[in-house]
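thought: fold this chain, then report.
action: predict
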Amino acid sequence: MNTDNFLLELGTEELPPKLLQSLSATLGDNLSEQLNDLNLDYSGVHLFSTPRRLGVLISDLQLQQSEQIIERKGPSISAPDIAIDGFAKSCGTDRKSLQQKTFGSSDYYFFTKKQKGLRATDLLENIVHTAIKKIPIARPMRWGDSDFTFVRPIHWLVMMLGKKIVPANIMGLVSGNVSRGLRFAKNRKITITSAEKYEDLMINKAQIEVDFVKRRETIRDQVTNKAKELGATAVIDELLLDEVCALVEYPLTLSGVFDEKFLSVPEEALISAMKTHQKYFHMLDKDGKLLPSFITVANIDSSDISVIIDGNERVIRPRLSDAEFFWNQDRSKSLNYRIDKLESVLFMKSLGSMGDKTKRIESISKYIAELIGANVTNCARTGLLSKSDLVSEMVGEFADLQGVMGGYYALQDGENESVALGIREHYHPRFAGDTLPSSHEGLVVSIADKIDTITGIYGIGQGPTGSKDPYALRRMALGLLRIMVESGFNINIKELIIKSLSLHTSDVDTNSADDIYIFLMDRLRAYYKEQNVSAKVFESVLAVKPDSPYDFHLRVQALNIFIKNSASKSLIEANKRIFNMLKDQNNLDTDVDTNILTEVAEKRLHNSTIELSSIIYGSKDYVSNMSQLVGLKSDIDSFFEEVMVNVEDEKIRNSRLSLLYSVRSLFLSVADVSYLS
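observation:
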């Protein structure tokens, strides 16, 4: 099979940095899908992306489709001659050339022919055009007087198969072998001599690393080394690194400084100004303190680097001045004073203002604090003040500092340190893998805040549907459950949902508690899936509907240990058998008439269940409970080997069914292990 490498490069205006990687991945996926549909084999797909280009290299692309067998089914052999002759004529042949084959219970005429595969060069124009058009773009742009649309205007098109240009006219552009370098560099046009040399030519001729991952690591190394030169440590945020990489084709790392007076402002505000607004990396000294300097990555070389550095230093100064001004202004008013201003900030239609929300958070925080034995006064105070910084000047300018600035202002106001820490941390965890709050106050208020939002939005009928989750309730629910599970808070989630719903206005449906519980359990399922917990283990525990996520977690841990025991398989199957025997039985209970028991095996099993019930019922040590239940294996095995349950005597039958019901009840005190079958 003849193969060659295929290169596609779309040259564009500067692409949105936060979309660059997804655009690149989607283009690659679409090309792969088109090639697979057309039965064109290839060995690999390599993606390239910079601010001004999207590229794909398809390695070892099959140059021609394989020969295909085309088969058409015609009329039955008993059909009228006119129908058979008509079918043959439509196939461009005569009746004698048709084949007879059995299809189902009848025989039919079939026409079969071999079709030569098409050349890749004849297919690639449509493949590329379709791959581009299938990229989902929320706000497509139109340029010039053309009817073409894309996320940004496209200015050049490279399509090469090996060393040859693939002829194509796509979106008004004729394909060629000429790419472009930096806008203001000498080598503005680069001729691509072959598809496989594309990456090397771009780096050698234009100093552009078109591979996103390689360019990102180059920037990481440059930033790290620049900080080392200055005797400092650079803090590299991965999301910022990705964004910077999507902004530059020719990374040049530089450092600048700012006035030390700004260090009197909370460092989070300075870092936010540098990172969010200017895409700068900040540096720390050997003691972990913020330095009055930064590292920036330029996209162009210059004979006078000092001009670029000076420009960046001038740009960051007003940003830091703003942060300093907001810091000084905000401290003139206490968080307590700002509570009333929250009444004018809408939380959500039908759910009231942010002031209403803080009062609900305060109430729920008291409720939770009492349940877990935390400081009720501190938790309530933290909840009441938790949103006050939303109406501060600093958070108005730097939204990512909500909570953080509230912590600083609380200390400024003389609030308890644990209250300040709780305010600072109550938004955590904000995303997958984020840290939990470190204090009881932070944990309690985080739960209160999240459950209030979930119940409120769900209660007005705005919960997630399908893939749509406009209020990020799934992520919020996962954070809520993580706190309960990982912090060991044994809180009745059903009662918490009802409590939270009761605090909302009449616009919120208080009958939505069951739906909210099911929603939370579905998120708990996702949590355990990420922890590589078997779906059967999860369903086994869910079947007994534990009230508390932490209690749920303890049961999961016990089952994970249980299934590793050699006796577990026999006990699981026994439970499945018992379930099947009892599923149609009503009015059974654990009271067994011992006077009716006659067989040694059933008496022994009954005595064992009585002994175990006194140990297990009421115990939350599920690992120990399951270990105790493993001890029933021999008694259960003997019972099924020696005792007939479904005998004609109704009293004996019911007594033995009640005994099995007792056995099942013991296991159900932990989980329904029949789901493990």
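thought: worth noting. Residues 13 and 152 are 6 Å apart (CA to CA).
final: tokens above.
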